[in-house]
Write a structure and sequence with these properties.
With 144 residues, this protein is of the alpha+beta class. The protein has one domain: Gcn5-related N-acetyltransferase (GNAT) (Aminopeptidase, 3-Layer(aba) Sandwich), CATH 3.40.630. Helix content is 28%, strand content 28%. It has a five-stranded mixed β-sheet. Helix 4 links the parallel strand 4 and strand 5. It is globular and about 40 Å long. InterPro entries: Acyl_CoA_acyltransferase (IPR016181), GNAT_dom (IPR000182), GNPNAT1-like (IPR039143). Keywords: Acyltransferase, Transferase. It holds the Pfam family Acetyltransf_1. Pathway: Nucleotide-sugar biosynthesis; UDP-N-acetyl-alpha-D-glucosamine biosynthesis; N-acetyl-alpha-D-glucosamine 1-phosphate from alpha-D-glucosamine 6-phosphate (route I): step 1/2.
Length: 144
């Protein structure tokens, strides 16, 4: 097994296991290649979306994103929302998730966010606490 490489998502990840990994997070059917490539181009370089993957030996074994939100509070500051973190079951506990989260958190700091937040299931809290995230408040959701 090679070393973990955390990098921005690219169009070739479509065939490197990206959607198979996403299936381990939630029901996520593979979208058509053209849809994926168009969306990827739209978010590349816009400064608000940072989609990253963890690659090992040419395969995607993890992915996640950072969404940057402009606020009116905190002098019109920026907040980073870490979203959709998932690592393939066979790579969990080996540092892939930590490497991905460090890269996304570092990007939030780099672009000027005053904080980064994320939502997770209760059983994942210990992992995120090990990565220096703190429990704060409660998540609420309204599904449509």
């Amino acid at each position: 097994m090679g070393a973990f490489k955390v990098r921005y998502m690219e169009s070739g990840d479509y065939d490197r296991g990206l959607f198979e990994v996403l299936q381990q997070l939630t029901a996520s059917p593979k979208v058509e290649r053209q849809v994926f490539e168009k969306l990827l181009e739209e978010v590349k370089g816009d400064g608000y979306y940072h989609w990253m993957v963890v690659e090992v030996d040419g395969l995607v074994v993890g992915c996640g994103s950072l969404v940057v939100e402009r606020k009116l509070i905190h002098s019109c500051g920026l907040v980073g929302h870490v979203e959709d973190i998932v690592v393939d079951e066979s790579f969990r506990g080996k540092g892939a998730g930590k490497a991905l989260l460090e890269k996304l958190s570092g990007k939030a700091k780099e672009v000027g966010c005053y904080k980064a937040t994320l939502d997770c299931q209760d059983d994942r809290v210990p992992f995120y606490e090990k990565c220096n995230y703190k429990r704060r408040g409660a998540q609420m959701a309204l599904y449509f």
